[in-house]
Design goal:
It contains two helices and eleven strands, in the order αβββββββββββα. It has 159 residues and is of the alpha+beta class.
């Protein structure tokens, strides 16, 4: 039994070390700007949003977090927190860009922009910010400070 637990522990450690790196074809998210400790809403200029996800890092009450915005195949804008609904507790449940896909850095699952927000009930998918939770104008998308501050817990283990 002791040998079984030793082998199991070694396997878990090996998977953890091997599964944490960025794959060769993946890119770290390109931040839209420097990280800022904000006390107000996050405002995203619509003209910055393309078919490739753009990341907006912010610090809210001492917690580092990111929001991303991307256009889907029909041109609609989708927004989400840069953390995975299933993998966020690992600290590695964030996304890198591979082509126009988003790839979870914890489990390796791929998503297209069309899938952002499609699985709102959990599972390995981005933590979506719905159109009802944000304020859209002709030129900007505004993520309310109250939503950012209320979402700090999903970034508590973020590395």
């Amino acid at each position: 039994m002791r040998k079984f637990f030793s082998v199991l522990t070694a396997a878990v450690l090996l998977l953890g070390v091997c599964g944490c790196g960025i794959r060769e074809n993946e890119q770290l998210p390109e931040a839209a700007s420097e990280v800022t400790d904000i006390k107000d809403d996050l405002v995203i200029p619509i003209n910055e949003v393309t078919e490739t996800a753009k990341f907006y890092p912010v610090t809210v009450e001492g917690t580092d977090m990111e929001v991303f915005a991307v256009r889907d195949s029909e041109g609609s804008i989708r927004t989400a927190f840069n953390t995975c609904q299933s993998c966020y507790t690992s600290g590695n449940g964030r996304y890198a860009v591979e082509g126009t896909d988003l790839v979870c850095q914890n489990c390796g699952f791929h998503f297209t922009a069309d899938q952002v927000g499609a699985n709102a009930n959990g599972g390995c998918s981005p933590w979506a910010i719905s159109a009802a939770e944000r304020i859209d104008s002709e030129d900007t998308i505004t993520i309310p400070y109250s939503l950012l501050a209320g979402s700090k817990a999903i970034f508590a283990n973020w590395k």
